[in-house]
Structures are given as structure tokens and as C-alpha cells.
Specification:
The structure is a homodimer of 304-residue chains. Chain A has 304 residues and is α+β, with helices and mostly antiparallel strands. Helix content of chain A is 36%, strand content 24%. Chain A starts with a strand and ends with a helix. At the A-B interface, strand 3, helix 7, strand 11, helix 8 and helix 9 of A face strand 3, helix 7, strand 11, helix 8 and helix 9 of B.
């Protein structure tokens, strides 16, 4: 039988005390059939993100234990950071990886949400593909106001109430925003110019929000250490708008401004299919099928 | 602990009776921790090839059972085919895939060889990275003469004797040629010409044997169904000579003859790293590391 694998990339409101993050990671790693693939903490934002993957059942269990551990260890009343947040475990997205779909991930999100409320007493909001209300699809909409304001709003505004549980937020752990989304690719392109305005102008031209490429978020920033301007991007659907299409668009817009590309950076993990699509384009393959990727086949076939 | 995965791609001297091949495949698939990834039979060559992968221990066990099953079911005295062959299980190469090395695969080959002789009484020759004699590195050298002639030669010529067991070959199952090699990529490039001489001339220019690209075997052939000439290639070390280097060389040689590329074909399975290298070149990534490939990380990390 084909094995299914999903990923979970939860964010926690703790980026300074290493033992707190280690406790959460240990709780995740203790679940059989789960592999922890990465963890990063940001001191300024006072947040951490953990990446793990495995069978849907195991990932759901590990996510539950992580939310419970975060609630036990983190008190939002004593938490400050420049990043908006609603909960100790703040955002918990599930992502399909192998033989899985976004619909399955939304189901995992919903089951986890019910359990987080019934066993931990922490109310839950659903976002993106798991959203139960159209106005909660976007994470920013759900989280706007943060823990302090939403704690007050839920008392009087039915529109602000959680999807599961509540209406009051948990006094120290707040609420958890659980969702399902596609794999998010972080892709940056460095330009042979120190003029950040050029990177900003290119970002405006190519990003979805201003009518550019679908599923592309982009900003122009300055890489001070290298004296280069960079177009920094998130691709929220790399199958619909592949890497090589984004690269070609930036190259074209840069050329129109008399600038060349120095190189690009892929940040963090990336599905083989995203690379395969770029390779297939470069090599002009006539027949390439992602089932030809050895590792994908092995992941989907190997015995548990 | 990191999980290791190797692949095995054995060839059997049976391509006509489906139940014989099915029996061998069943014997392989019965081993836990092994995934059968493909099987192909050729009626003219009267041979079959099976592709499977898993942990080194499991793959070694499955290879042993496959050799035993082939010996039980195939009698070389009643086998004819256009392809040279020495044994019922003819060639058994092991290939490193995840967290494994060619040296580890050579050790697996040697252990299997000892066991095939001691338990099945079939003598063994080692080739490529598992060769114990320099003149047996190349498979063609080991197999030259085939079952009928080598069965006679071993009686009188010590130089022809097996590396393990013998000197006489097994009366019906012959001998098994066991080895370790790198992943073999099959890559074809189609040209916008019906002139096969151009494909042949390009093949001569780019192949290793005539001083072209290292680790590239190439021939020019005609695709009758499409009226196109094709450069058909095997890449025996895609890390040393990557896909995009081969593509660029063929494109350059074609252009010198006034011909363009129509497209390319990747045949069968392909490691994600081979695609990642082509993608990284096309996208000019500055920092890409194969450990960023999600599926590779998962394969190496996921719990058994």
C-alpha cells in the first residue's frame, strides 16, 4: 500500500529560552513515524518554527503533543515580541508531501482542532484550506489584533469567536490557529546592483498582489553585507507558478532596467518536484513524470 | 539514526514466461523493508530486469532469494537469446541511494557472493567496484563467451575461474556476476533532423570512449516513428558529468552542424540529485545543498 506523508511547520511564541524549544521538539520527536527536519528560533521576533514530517496519523499526534507542551511551558501574559501572535503554539499548518492532498491535511487540521479544545481547553481558529469561514482563509485576518486584543474582542464580538471552543481564549496559552496549505518555497534572486529601488520595482511587477505572477509574494531588500539588491520571494504554489517561470520574469524585468542576475538562493527544504520542474524545463524533457523521481517513489513505497 | 538505502537492479535470463519473472519478483517483494520499483522483460533478448530498493540488509537478503529463485526456475541449457549471458541470475549490481557509498555496496556484493556459492553452489564473479581483479572491472570482459564457452574454459584456463566457488559453473544456473556501481542514468536527446549520421557524429564527439565527456556512453540512432535522429546516452556518473553539461555539449555539437534540439527524454528512475543539479545550474543557485531536498531528508530520517 502506498505510504502517505505530510509535513507540519508549527510556530511557537518562544525564541529565547532554548530549553523551552527543546522541550517542544522532544515531545514531537518522541512520536514514532515522525522525523524532525529542522528548527529555528528568532530572538527578536521571540518565536520558533519547527519542521517535522511523517505519516498523517503520527504527524497529527506529534502536533497535539507540541501544542500541549507549548501551553504548559509558555505564558503569553509574559511574552513580548515584534511579531504578531495569538497563542503559545501560534500557527500549526499541515502540508501534503507524498501521496497526500490538501483536503486530507484540512481533515487532519480539523481533527487536531477538536482535540486541542476538548483535551487542552485551548480554543482554535482554522485558516487557509482548513478555514470554515471565507474571511478566515488569510492568516493575517485571523491573527490581527493579537492575543491581547482578541482576548477582549471575543467577550463582546461574536464575529471574533473561535471556530472550536471558547468564546474566551485560554488565559496563558491564548488560541491556536490551525490550517492546511501547500508547500511554501522561499526563493531569493540577487541582482548585480546596489540600487534597492530596482529590486523593489521588480518585486511590484512580479508579485500576485499587484497583478503579476499568481502565487508569488515578493519584496525588494538590500543585502548590506554584499552590497547587492535582492528580490526576496515566497512561492505559495510552485506547481502553478514554477521556479523557472519566476526566475525568467525577474530576469526579464531586471534586463529592462539594465541589470543582470548574480545568482539565486533557495532557503530551507524544497520538494524534489519543484527542482524537477525547473530541470525538465532547462533540459526540455518531453516525457518527464514526477513518479520517475527515485526518492519520491521510495518514500511512497517503502514499508513503515 | 540515519537510514541507509541501496538499490539492486538484477538481470535474469528469462523474458518470455511471465510466471517465471513473477515468481522471482514475488520472492524479492516478500522481504520486509524492500520496495519493488519496476520490472521489464524483453522477449527478443529473453531477459528481464527488476529494480528494487531498501535497507542494505534487506536488499542483500532479497537479492539472495532472487538468485535462488532464478536458479530453481531457469535452465540455461534450454535458454536462447540475442543478449550475452552467463547465469540464470546473470548480473546483480548494487547501487548506493541514500546515506550509502559504493564501498558499502561492494561489501554487500561480496557477502552475497559468498552466500550464493556456499548455499546455492553457484560460482560468482565480481565486477566494477566489487571487482577483485582489475581485468574484471568491466562487465563485458567478465561475460565474454557466455555460459556455453565459459563452462568449457573454466575446466582448463585458471584465468577464467570464478572469484568465489567453482571452478565448474553450475550445470543449469551457470554463474552470477555480482557488482557495485553508481546510478546509471539513461538520457536521450532528439534532434530536429532525419539524418542519423548527424546523431552518430555527435555521439562520437561527446562520448568518453573517443575522448569526449567522462562517464558518458553515446550512440546515434534513428527514431523511425517520429522521423528524428536521436543521441541515446548512458551517464555512468551523473555527479561528475551532470545532465546539463551533457545537454549543453550535444546542443553545441548540433549547432555546429546546423541542427537544433527538439527535446530530451529521461528513461526510468532518476535520483532527485541529478535533477537538482540541472535545476541549480539553470536557476544559478549560489548555495544549494542536496540536503535541502525534502524527500532525500525524509528518506534518510524516517523511522523504519
Amino acid at each position: 500500500m502506498a505510504r502517505r506523508i505530510i509535513e507540519c511547520v508549527p510556530n511557537f511564541s518562544e525564541g529565547r529560552r532554548a530549553e523551552t524549544v527543546a522541550g517542544i521538539v522532544d515531545a514531537i520527536a518522541a512520536v514514532p513515524q515522525v522525523a524532525v527536519l529542522g528548527k529555528e528560533s528568532d530572538i527578536d521576533h521571540h518565536r520558533s518554527v519547527v519542521t517535522f514530517a511523517g505519516t498523517p496519523e503520527a504527524v497529527e499526534e506529534a502536533a497535539f503533543r507540541a501544542v500541549a507542551e507549548a501551553a504548559k511551558r509558555i505564558d503569553l501574559r509574559r511574552h513580548e515580541g515584534v511579531h504578531p501572535r495569538l497563542g503559545a503554539a501560534d500557527v500549526v499548518p499541515f502540508v501534503p508531501v507524498v501521496n497526500s492532498s490538501i483536503e486530507e491535511c484540512a481533515e487532519v487540521a480539523h481533527r487536531l482542532g477538536e482535540r486541542v479544545w476538548s483535551e487542552l481547553g485551548i480554543p482554535v481558529y482554522f485558516y487557509e484550506a482548513a478555514a470554515r469561514r471565507e474571511d478566515r482563509r488569510r492568516l493575517e485576518n485571523v491573527r490581527r489584533g493579537g492575543f491581547e486584543k482578541i482576548s477582549q474582542w471575543v467577550l463582546t464580538d461574536p464575529e471574533k469567536r473561535p471556530d472550536v471552543g471558547g468564546p474566551m481564549l485560554h488565559p496563558s496559552a491564548g488560541g491556536v490557529i490551525i490550517g492546511a496549505r501547500k508547500f511554501l518555497l522561499a526563493f531569493n534572486i540577487n541582482l548585480a546592483t546596489a540600487d534597492v529601488e530596482i529590486a523593489k520595482a521588480i518585486a511590484v511587477k512580479i508579485r500576485a498582489s499587484s497583478g503579476g505572477l499568481p502565487h508569488v509574494k515578493a519584496m525588494g531588500v538590500m543585502l548590506a553585507s554584499r552590497g547587492l539588491a535582492q528580490v526576496t520571494m515566497n512561492l505559495t504554489d510552485f506547481e502553478a507558478t514554477p521556479l523557472h517561470v519566476v526566475y525568467a520574469a525577474v530576469e526579464r524585468e531586471a534586463a529592462a532596467r539594465g541589470v543582470t542576475i548574480v545568482g539565486s538562493e533557495i532557503i530551507g527544504l524544497m520538494p524534489a518536484k519543484a527542482l524537477a520542474m525547473a530541470a525538465a524545463h532547462a533540459l526540455r524533457t518531453e516525457n518527464f513524470d514526477e513518479r520517475q523521481i527515485l526518492e519520491s517513489r521510495l518514500l511512497g513505497n517503502l514499508i513503515d
